Amino acid sequence: MVARTGWDDKAAVAEMKINEYNFSNHQHLDAGSFQIYYHGPLATESGLYGGTDGAYGSSHCKNYFWRTIAHNSLLIYDPLEKFSLNGDFGNDGGQRLPNNRYEPRNLEVFLNSENGYNTGEVLAHGFGPSTLTPDYTYLKGDITKAYSSKVKEVKRSFIFLNLKNADVPAALIVFDKVVSSSPSFKKYWLLHSIEEPVIKGNEVTIPGTKNAQTGKLVNVSLLPEISNQELTPVGGPGKEFWVFDRNYENESTDKSGEGTYERAAWRIELSPKIPSQENYFLNVMQVMENGAAGFMVSLIDGDKVLGVTIADRIVIASKSFEQINDSFSFSIRNKGNFKILLTDLLSGKWQVIKNKKVIIPEASVKEEDGVLYFEGTNGKYTIIRL
After folding, report:
1. Which of 260, 294, 328 is where one domain is finished?
2. pLDDT tens track of the chain, all 386 residues?
3. Alpha helices (H) in 20-174, listed in sequence order
């Protein structure tokens, strides 16, 4: 899905990707990836098709540019994993090569599950409430099949919020569940950028100062918990295209200047410090003008759900990533009027109770998106399926 706040030069744009199928060859191993643009590319992709060592089939292409590590996705690193039969693809910790990266010669080959072209499933999608200027755009998917047997479950959901604010126009919330087949396999949440990221606690700022850009991105990592976060910058001279122990160097041969070359030479890697088979990542990215401070971001922790508060928006999701089919509760402690988005609901009729008083007697939830959207203030909410 692609979401945007408008069509002028002040628009914020986000691309969100699941990849239900991977055709190999010209399709990258980028299931679950995203990109964000505001006055220029902020969360972007890395690598170069061309240059001094980026021709088709080059070492740079095979080991970096085509691979998951060059995209804003997830790595699960099994040090013993082999990615190709003849060993010409290195271990980036990312997604497998469908059918050893051979293109399907016909539809029968493509649809045969043994060949592995099926790499994911869209679980929910929607936007609204307006179809022309939506407040939110939502996409959720299961990308377990994009990886080898090193994983048991990988799911990711995206919520793009049009905040309708001149200084901070948009936010992208990315929520992940990763279950590896061994707790020893280290997990990495990736965010690529052109300029060097600045890390302060659980907050990362990506500046946009080149080519007269005037925007920046600020990411707040809510999960893993701060005490269990390992947040590392990777990049700069000699590490622009770094894959664990090697840089797959590639320089542009374009002589027209750096202004035409979006060289994403940096990334951050977010990992849990404590090894575990099951991990969750929850990140909130805001785009804003260079002089803006951004909104405070806080975590909501309910009985079966968790959520995010940012500006006048609240987003609630299932803790387990499974659909919610019975009642649950959460509390809003911040004062103000909020637009509340509930996700992961089973389709059907639902009721909203606030402070033991029914405020929405009956609301319908559609199967395709599983969301409920309404406005409210602080208090304790109980949501009941009728």
Report:
1. 294
2. 999 999 998 999 999 999 999 999 889 999 999 999 999 999 999 999 988 888 999 999 999 999 999 999 999 999 999 999 888 999 999 999 999 999 999 999 999 999 999 999 999 999 999 999 999 999 999 999 999 999 999 999 999 999 999 999 999 999 999 999 999 999 999 999 999 999 999 999 999 888 778 899 999 999 999 999 999 999 999 999 999 999 999 988 876 655 556 789 999 999 999 999 999 999 999 999 998 999 999 999 988 999 999 999 999 999 999 999 999 999 999 999 999 999 999 999 999 999 999 999 999 999 999 999 999 999 999 999 99
3. 59-60, 107-111
Q: Which domain holds residue 150?
A: 2-294
In this structure, the answer to whether residues 264 and 305 fall within a common structural domain is no
CATH number of the domain encompassing residue 20: 2.70.98.70
Question: Dihedrals φ, ψ of 181, to 5°?
Answer: -75, -15
Q: What is the residue type of 246?
A: R
One-letter amino acid at 351 equals Q
212 and 80 both lie in a single domain: yes
pTM above 0.90, yes or no: yes
In terms of domains, do 300 and 289 share one? no
Exposure of 317 in the CB half-sphere (CA atoms within 13 A): 27
Question: What is the residue type of 270?
Answer: L
